[in-house]
Design a protein that fits this description.
It is built from twelve helices and four strands. By secondary structure, it is mostly helical.
């Protein structure tokens, strides 16, 4: 199934946009640790360590990168979109960035805090296969009604093609996104009722070797 690995690859590239981009040498993590400690209250960091699957040093490095991009400590949707536009200059990343922002903004207050960010990132990078698939399903389920429709999947697929740009898909036909969506539903809509439930999604993904391999792309990002 070509669809999920493609979306996993796009998500992987997009997640890397939000990570620290440069390591100055073998002591860079220690340097980042020292620079970041002034920004954290220890009790807040300890709590995040309990709530996520990151070490204290990883959280310090992530926080430094987050603060570099978002000095106020939170990011709104427009800033989020601007960050993405810098990493996907060959395409239009605004719609995909909107969908991803919605997935990170679990409180639905129009802002993504560092806590929101690392909570989602912990699932994507360190969660179990089930955790990651649940997060992906939530991303695709745009109106959060518990099922994925063809219209929702078409919106996601178009946003990915728009973000990656014409240079990534030089031979892409106009109907390519729709073909991917039809293939997705053929494989995953087990009872043929026109929607994909979380149960159908997880069961189908777990039985697909390509999808399972694509999930492993996230294992060693940081």
């Amino acid at each position: 199934m070509a669809f999920i690995p493609q979306t996993a690859g796009a998500m992987l590239r997009s997640v890397k946009c939000l990570l620290p981009h440069k390591h100055k040498g073998k002591n860079s993590i220690e340097d980042d640790f020292e620079l970041s400690t002034v920004c954290h209250r220890p009790e807040g960091l300890d709590k995040l360590q309990e709530q996520t699957k990151f070490t204290k040093k990883e959280l310090q490095v992530l926080y430094r990168g987050f603060k570099n991009e978002c000095p106020s400590g939170v990011v709104n949707e427009e800033t989020f979109k601007h960050i993405y536009s810098q990493f996907f200059p060959q395409g239009d990343s605004s719609t995909y960035a909107h969908f991803l922002f919605e997935a990170f903004d679990t409180n639905k207050n129009g802002n993504v805090s560092f806590e929101d960010f690392v909570a989602g990132l912990s699932i994507i990078l360190r969660g179990s296969i089930n955790d990651r698939l649940n997060w992906a399903f939530n991303l695709y389920d745009l109106n959060k009604d518990g099922c994925i429709t063809k219209e929702e999947m078409m919106d996601i697929m178009k946003s990915i093609y728009d973000m990656m740009g014409k240079y990534t898909y030089p031979c892409m036909q106009d109907d390519a996104p729709r073909d991917h969506v039809e293939n997705f539903f053929q494989k995953m809509d087990r009872n043929k009722d026109g929607v994909v439930t979380i149960e159908e999604f997880i069961e189908s993904c777990q039985k697909d070797e390509n999808i399972m391999q694509s999930m492993q792309l996230f294992d060693n990002v940081i």
